[in-house]
Amino acid sequence: MLNKDDPHSDGAKPYEPIKIFGFDGNLVALSVMNFFLNAAVSVITPFYPPIALEKGVSQFMIGFIFALNPIGSFSVSMSIG
């Protein structure tokens, strides 16, 4: 007879994450994605300001545009957890 208090009484195995170099596979995947996302954003750093100045964007707005990425990341991470 099944015990309703035991979550594994139906014979199902508990979830065991895939291990990559001894770390949780989900954590490794998220860390790699985070690295490549930040690398892609940082590639524009040396090239964007001169192009933006040619288009008439002020220095303040260029700084504000670069500041939005960490501000956005912080606010989204607060809402997601």
Description of the molecule:
This protein is mainly α and 81 residues long. It has one domain (19-80). Helix content is 58%, strand content 5%. It has three helices and two strands. It has helices at 25-42, 48-54, 59-80, and strands at 19-20, 23-24. Strands 1-2 form a two-stranded antiparallel ribbon. It is elongated. The protein starts with 18 loop residues before the first strand and ends with a helix.
Largest sheet geometry: 2 strands, antiparallel
Order of helices and strands: EEHHH
- According to DSSP, the number of beta strands is 2
Distance linking N and C termini: 39 Å
Unreliable spans are none
Which key phrases capture this entry?
single chain, 81 residues, 3 helices
Brief digest:
The chain has 81 residues and is mostly helical.
Furnish the topology, listing elements before pairings:
Elements: E1 19-20, E2 23-24, H1 25-42, H2 48-54, H3 59-80
Antiparallel strand pairs: 1-2
